Amino acid sequence: MSNTDTRDPTSLRTPIVAVLGHVDHGKTSLLDKIRGSAVIEGEAGAITQHIGATAVPLDIISSIAGDLVDPDDFDLPGLLFIDTPGHHSFTTLRSRGGALADIAILVVDVNDGFQPQTLEALDILKRSQTPFIVAANKIDTVPGWNANEDSPINDTYESQSDRVRSRLDESLYEIIGNLSDEEFSADLYWRVQNFQRNVGVVPVSAMTGEGVPDLLTVMMGLSQRYMKEEMEIDVAGPGVGTVLEVKEEKGFGKTIDIVLYDGTIKADDTIVVGGQNDPIVTEVRALLQPRPLAEIRTESRFEKVDEVSAASGIKIAAPELGDAMAGAPVRVVRDRPLEDVIQEVRAELADIAVDTAEEGVVVKADTLGSLEAMADALDEAEVPIVRAEVGDVAPRDISVASTAEDPKQQAILGFNVDVLSDAKQRAEIEDVTLFTDEVIYQLIEEYEDHIEAIEREQQD
Ligand code: GDP
């Protein structure tokens, strides 16, 4: 049987959405609200729970958005929301043809404005050229905000929006030059204040749900208008995805959670995954999806499936995944020589590789994307790096750091990672200083303070 006969024609996949923003600005609440609204509108089962992502189909978006979204005007199937808010995996991969996220929501607390992680997220969006919408969140807390005002001329609404707008950095305006208001109705334009400046600011409350229909409408509209071509995939083609997380799973060993953005992956495929040292070649043992909640008590948490097509979040169990890295590419080997696929993954990894020096600090980060962001920031601060890796701080990192001749370089900077307990002990013994933080610029500031302290000591 020739497999070309069974090929699906090109079809449109679901755009993948990431939610970014400063801690406590409401990323998780907003995702919960979107999921909750979808369940209310469509009853349970309307949304498909993926590994690490939630799919909200077009008809549910349309019910939530009321007359703002007419399903007949759209041919994209819906939106796939990545559930790990602020996840760093997608940060650098998009510009290289891959896409963990096609579009993003930048959540900003209207009371708190732009904070360090907002700026960091903006930086990431700028570098990856990911289009995004600003969700100006917690409008329910703004005194005088009139949620029930029907009139299109609502001063409160406008002035609040100005307040949000005034917090937008100039750089924000440059980023998505391809957005405009033309496609939207006057009513929507009134609600979405900022389109004339190429950035959509949608006032929302993740608590009351106000503005969520508008947000979904705008996301859907922008995707349909500007991303349709990018969403055209050969569904039956070999799957391509990005690793979200590497996890130990009872009964399955090391597994990877991936977001598949192209093609199909099958339960007996050979795959190539980006690893710490070299691409990992392995055979899929099982493709796993979460079971419906009711079954968790009696059954295992996962259900095996034979195949999935993009866009999907799926867990892969396979041997040899110990060295797999979050943020790394995953490619299915099908209809092509294995060596070609390995070369492709190797090239993608080399592209993300951080330049290291003979001497410098050790850097650890949770994903490839955040590692690259760290390296950029350290480069700007003129701090050389001797070793840069994805993963928790381990004893062998201490060994490397302890060999530095300059005491200022006997340091490890860990972004969004843990320090393994034996590494902690070892660091004390070997006199290596550990810095960990969840905000890059704070991490670098802590390290710079440390350097200054050492320099002062040396002068005395
Ligand atoms: P994250 O860290 O960005 O994921 O933020 P969370 O979703 O955990 O929200 C942080 C806090 O803000 C929680 O106490 C939420 O209940 C609260 N919060 C989030 N969105 C809203 C909102 O729209 N209105 C109000 N009043 N509180 C909110």
From TrEMBL:
CC annotations in GO: cytoplasm
The chain positions of domain Tr-type G read 12-227
Q: Which domain of life is it from?
A: Archaea
UniProt-recorded Gene Ontology molecular function terms: GTP binding; GTPase activity; translation initiation factor activity
Task: List keywords of the entry alphabetically.
Answer: GTP-binding, Initiation factor, Nucleotide-binding, Protein biosynthesis
Q: Which residues form the signal peptide?
A: none
Where does the chain bind GTP?
A: 21-28, 83-87, 137-140
Role this protein plays: Function in general translation initiation by promoting the binding of the formylmethionine-tRNA to ribosomes. Seems to function along with eIF-2.
Q: What family does this belong to?
A: Belongs to the TRAFAC class translation factor GTPase superfamily. Classic translation factor GTPase family. IF-2 subfamily.
- Under which name does UniProt file this protein? Probable translation initiation factor IF-2
Q: Which organism is it from?
A: Natronorubrum halalkaliphilum
